[in-house]
Specification:
Layout lengths: L1 H42 L4 H11 L3 H9 L3 E5 L5 E6 L5 E5 L4 E2 L2 H9 L7 H12 L3 E4 L2 H11 L1
Parallel strand pairs: 1-5
Antiparallel strand pairs: 1-2, 2-3, 3-4
The protein binds zinc ion.
Zinc ion (ZN) binds next to helix 4.
GO molecular function, one term: zinc ion binding
InterPro entries: Znf_SWIM
Keywords: Metal-binding, Zinc, Zinc-finger
Amino acid sequence: MMAESLNKRIAHVESDFALRKGYVYEEVSSQLLKEVETVYKEKGKLTDEVLSALQCVFQASLLPALDLVDKRSVSQVICPAGRSLYQVVGSSGTPYTCFTSSVYCSCPAYRYSVLLKEEHMMCKHVLAIKLSEAIGCVKILEVSNQDIANMIQRIE
Ligand SMILES: [Zn+2]
């Protein structure tokens, strides 16, 4: 009986900690992206200090994401009805569809690393969108309502 309630207690503390860790991570990453925006506006580039902070938080996703930013791979797709989503052309040339509010991406890394293994908070494509937004280099792609409906249908 004692052991059972202790196990329950441990499970509760663990899940509570995981929740808080996710929350802290989200806070830290959004603060950091705000700083990227400020520093880029002031200096026209990212300082070493900001880059190493980004490296700490986003680790292995950072360099591939910066590469996508450099290549201007990020577009915001908008339609007259006001719906919008993002499209990121991956390093192999494949376009992926993403939603930043849910950090959803149609790439395999999202499914395996973000959803299943919870190793990363977001894939490199979603990180590339957030970085591109912070430094103001997102391309705008205007399409028809039907086009955007088709893109959404393809991921569902
Ligand atoms: Zn992705």
